[in-house]
Design a protein that fits this description.
With about 375 residues, the protein is an alpha/beta fold. The protein has helices at about 5-35, 40-45, 50-70, 110-120, 140-150, 165-175, 190-195, 200-210, 230-245, 270-285, 290-295, 300-305, 320-325, 340-350, and strands spanning about 70-80, 125-130, 155-160, 180, 215-225, 245-250, 310-315, 355. The chain has one domain: Alpha-Beta Barrel (TIM Barrel). It has 14 helices and 8 strands. The structure holds 5'-deoxyadenosine (5AD) and iron/sulfur cluster (SF4).
Length: about 375
């Protein structure tokens, strides 16, 4: 090759590298300043594969997290009160077609006692989570919510799936403050493949109903679902930007052996962290948990998520006798650890990364509770 031509190609490569870095710096600056990114920019950030570039993205998200919601990490006490489920989500170990689950239901009294106990430890929010269990009618749930609220000064978050508007209304009137209903994936076709009995549109409608009823609303998605592309994740980011939920849970998909997706590879930690970072940059002041799933795929997953934009942790307070049976995916973190050491370990994790443990109910930064 003539020397002149070689020099010209090297110069061209050098210039395009410089151009690429300048573009990246501009996008990151825009992300940091306003989060007002185009779809192409969102895709570019989610596609980063250079470790230094990813570190800069995560750092920008961490800075925006500090500016918009401070250093506080909010603690939510989780009670998984029933693992019965009428749904058949392809990814979940609790799906109704899995016959190998020992199904349990805590009694109303057990739920109230457990919740009051958690609130007594100065944890300001109780999360009541279950599969979609029709035994817990809205009236029964209202009784439980009322039972907790009459004895404890705490916020109540429900995470019990899709319900009719009237059910949501009844539970809100009984005193529920928040509702978590991850949208799972904002790509309707992928959603349809993973949920044999339901459609994305009904999910979306539930989120709108909850918002109308003045719940603080939580949405969110999984990362690394079989067949999911970066374009799909960009759909999630854009969906979350439009919906602007108070809370956003993002975690990696983890294959469960007793599901149709048993053989699928799980979600990747780095992609999950990039997704948390981009969502923080775009949504600014959402409450974002460092999910149990991210802590399950990596020993330091919780800390890594907390430094990539997250600001909530959810220690598990489900009584140990039931907890082993709430297996949405295998090797779930905290499965045998008693609640006291779980919260102790989480507080140490929070302090170790220079953050503070929040007190009080930790309501939405977007709308007052
Ligand atoms: N891997 C990771 N997350 C899962 N979830 C359900 N099954 C799995 C799995 N196999 C998540 C869903 C659901 C939340 C309670 O747990 O996003 O909304
Ligand atoms: Fe049921 Fe929720 Fe599991 Fe779906 S993800 S099967 S609704 S518990």
């Amino acid at each position: 090759m003539p020397v002149g031509r070689w020099t010209w190609s090297a110069a061209f490569l050098y210039n395009s590298l410089v151009d690429r870095m300048a573009v990246f710096t501009n996008v990151l600056e825009k992300a940091r300043n306003s989060g007002d990114l185009t779809r192409e920019e969102i895709i570019a950030l989610l596609s980063l594969d250079d470790a230094d570039d990813i570190a800069r993205l995560v750092q920008a998200a961490d800075e925006v997290r500090r500016e918009c919601v401070g250093d506080d990490v909010h603690i939510r006490g989780l009670i998984e009160f029933s693992n019965n489920c009428a749904q058949n989500c392809l990814y979940c170990g609790l799906r109704r077609d899995n016959p190998d689950v020992h199904r349990y239901r805590m009694t109303g009294e057990e739920i109230v006692e457990t919740a009051v106990g958690i609130a007594g430890k100065k944890i300001g929010t109780i999360v009541l989570q279950s599969g979609e269990d029709p035994w817990f009618t809205a009236e029964r749930m209202a009784g439980i919510i009322h039972g907790i609220k009459s004895r404890a000064d705490c916020a109540i978050t429900l995470s019990i799936g899709e319900r009719p508007y009237e059910d949501y209304r009844l539970m809100k009137e009984a005193g529920a403050d928040r509702y978590l209903l991850r949208h799972e994936t904002a790509s309707p076709e992928l959603y349809g493949r993973l949920h044999p009995d339901s459609q994305f549109e009904s999910r979306r409608q539930c989120l709108i109903d909850l918002r109308e009823l003045c719940y603080q609303v939580g949405a969110g998605c999984m990362v690394g679902l079989p067949g999911q592309t970066i374009e799909d994740l960009a759909n999630d980011v854009e969906f979350l930007r439009r919906l602007d939920p108070d809370m956003i849970g993002i975690g990696p998909f983890i294959a469960h052996p007793n599901t149709p997706l048993a053989e699928s590879p799980g979600g990747d930690l780095t992609l999950t962290l990039k997704m948390i970072a981009v969502v923080r940059l775009v949504t600014r002041n959402a409450l974002m948990p460092a999910t149990t799933a991210v802590g399950t795929i990596d020993e330091f997953g919780i800390e890594k998520a907390l430094t990539a934009g997250a600001n909530v942790v959810m220690p598990n307070y489900t009584p140990l006798e039931y907890r082993v049976y709430y297996e949405i995916y295998p090797n779930k973190r905290c499965i045998t650890e008693d609640p006291e050491s779980c919260i102790g370990r989480m507080s140490a994790q929070i302090l170790s990364i220079g953050r503070t443990v929040a007190e009080g109910p930790g309501h939405s930064y977007k709308r007052n509770g």
